[in-house]
Design a protein that fits this description.
single chain; alpha/beta; Alkaline Phosphatase, subunit A; Diphtheria Toxin Repressor, domain 2; 2 domains; 19 helices; disordered N terminus; binds 2-acetamido-2-deoxy-beta-D-glucopyranose; binds zinc ion
């Protein structure tokens, strides 16, 4: 039931009347709620304040269907028998292409969601003609909703940027940071930002908030933000003082790393929060701030680095990122199920990355039907982490370091050839090391990758809604196979937003440096 034209919100369903669909819809809704209630002891409330709505929109950057099969096997191989819960909420699937290519990048992918508009690769909140397009987040803010962005990469990276800025090319991150703090025609539209990417908020000579940033103009946007009334949080101590969001003042700017927050696999709880902690802090702060309002909030939550693990072809790091996302999503479901406010959760990916698959032929003989999640379980750190350590080890200590710290302790690989070892010894760049390590792990696990880039396969769409009517709206719009822009159209429809009006308001926004 694909829509062949990509703007239609409702697919035509051959053979089923709308009445039949409605009956099916109610049955499916009941089934999902029953599953949730039975499996997770969640009791949705019936009484919901009229008209007030929250939307939490999740993007699993670069996560395709194979990521879930891989992560499920990885999780179930552990003694604790962790379950992946996200798949329980599957609503349908989605086509990801952009206007310029059958394979999208994250900028066009996110703009399809934020502006409900198909655009060219690298475009951030601008249409195919390069003109700024009004976003869901901006329109929601203008309608009185509170808004937030939560990511594990740079806040100025493509996905959050496409909701909160307008630039011709995703590389213009200095300008994106300015837009996010509200220097363009609408004023400030973001109430809360939690993630990495501090580097684009200050200059290279400036060490007030970090080791030196990368803004070309050297301006300190953090000082400016504080002057303008933002609460700034720059480390874990400050993050803890937010008391899970209940002691936050909005607008809140939490820049918790210069670039990325480390992979969940490498993350130190004392130094960086998990995606779930970031998200719950945002949800609690936005809930408190909208307590007396007749509007709720719109929050974007991105599992940003699933994509990075896939670009690096690191299956162990990706499985851990997916599990961290799964935990965050379930906490949001639990929040929504208990909330008195009508709340809808939508989760999807902008595209698949890596051409990941579980099962790979590793020799000339016809392959056995197996792959080995235990190889992934044996890794204690990502290849990225290990490569950054190894690159700084002096030449005469390298061989021992590789044997003990990288292969045996880091990756849990106890059988490797002299050739493997020598290839690592002579690798001089982190990229070369990283590539060799991820090839060793993937080969042993019999995990396949077709690319270090993105692919054009369809991705899954997941949803949860805490009332019958909201559940029905989600289902009417998103059941089955859809185009990525249909997600944006649904968000606009559900929050009753006029994106064209915003597009008109922002037409003079400066969208290149
Ligand atoms: C609440 O936030 C304020 C301002 O950052 C801080 O001074 C105070 O210590 C925080 N309270 C707690 C209990 O962390
Ligand atoms: C995992 O590590 C253990 C030692 O810690 C080793 O005995 C085992 O062979 C490793 N498994 C795989 C699949 O590499
Ligand atoms: Zn990517």
């Amino acid at each position: 039931m694909a829509t062949d034209e990509h703007t239609g919100l409702l697919p035509r369903v051959g053979g089923r009347s709308s009445k039949q669909r409605a009956v099916w819809g109610s049955l499916v809704a009941l089934l999902v709620l029953a599953t949730v209630v039975l499996r997770f002891d969640i009791v949705p409330r019936r009484a919901v304040a009229g008209g007030k709505r929250n939307v939490i929109f999740f993007v699993t950057d670069g996560m395709g269907p194979a990521s879930l099969a891989m992560t499920r096997a990885y999780a179930q191989a552990q003694e604790t028998d962790t379950q992946l819960r996200l798949p329980t909420f599957q609503m349908g699937s989605m086509q990801t292409r952009s206007s310029s290519s059958l394979i999208t990048d994250s900028a066009a992918g996110a703009t399809a969601f934020s502006c409900a508009m198909r655009t060219y690769n690298s475009a951030v909140g601008v249409g195919p003609d390069g003109r700024p397009c009004g976003t869901i987040l901006e329109a929601a803010k203008l309608q009185g909703y509170m808004t937030g962005l939560v990511v594990t990469t740079r806040l100025t990276d493509a996905t959050p940027a496409a909701f909160s800025s307008h630039v011709d090319h995703r590389w213009y991150e200095d300008l994106i940071a300015e837009h996010q703090l509200g220097t363009y025609p609408l004023g400030r539209v973001v109430d809360l930002m939690i993630g990495g990417g501090r580097t684009h908020f200050y200059g290279s000579q400036d060490t007030k908030y970090g080791d030196g940033g990368s803004r070309k103009d050297g301006r300190n946007l953090i000082d400016k933000a504080v002057e303008d009334g933002w609460q700034y949080v720059g480390d874990m101590e400050g993050f803890k003082r937010l008391q899970g969001g209940h002691n936050a003042s909005l607008p809140l700017l939490a820049l918790l790393a210069d670039y990325d927050i480390p992979f969940d696999m490498d993350r130190d709880d004392a130094v960086h929060p998990s995606l779930e902690q970031e998200m719950m802090t945002a949800i609690n702060a936005l809930t408190d701030a909208t307590k007396d309002s007749d509007r709720g909030f719109f929050l974007l939550v991105e599992g940003s680095r699933i994509d990075h693990a896939a670009h690096q072809n690191d299956p162990a790091a990706q499985a851990k990122e997916v599990l961290a996302f799964d935990r965050a999503f379930m906490s949001a479901v639990e929040f929504a199920a208990k909330s008195d406010v009508e709340t809808v959760l939508i989760s999807t990916s902008d595209h698949e990355t890596g051409g990941l698959t579980v099962g790979r032929q590793v020799g000339t003989a016809y392959p056995d039907y197996v792959w080995y999640p235990d190889v992934l379980r044996n890794a204690t750190h990502s290849a990225e982490y290990l490569a950054h350590k190894l690159v700084n080890v002096p030449a005469n200590e390298r061989e021992d370091y590789i044997r003990e710290k990288v292969l045996e302790k880091g990756l849990g690989i106890d059988y490797y050839s002299e050739e493997d070892l020598q290839e690592l010894v002579v690798s001089r760049t982190t990229d070369q090391i990283l590539d060799k390590l991820t090839r060793m792990v993937s080969l042993r696990a019999e995990i396949g990758w077709s690319t270090h880039g993105h692919t054009g396969v369809d991705v899954n769409v997941y949803a949860f809604a805490n009332t019958g009517p909201s559940w029905k709206s989600v289902q009417d719009a998103l059941y089955g196979n859809h185009a990525n822009v249909d997600i944006g159209s649904f968000l606009a429809l559900y929050l009753d937003l006029d994106l064209e009006k915003v597009t008109d308001l922002i037409k003079d926004t400066k969208h290149s440096p």
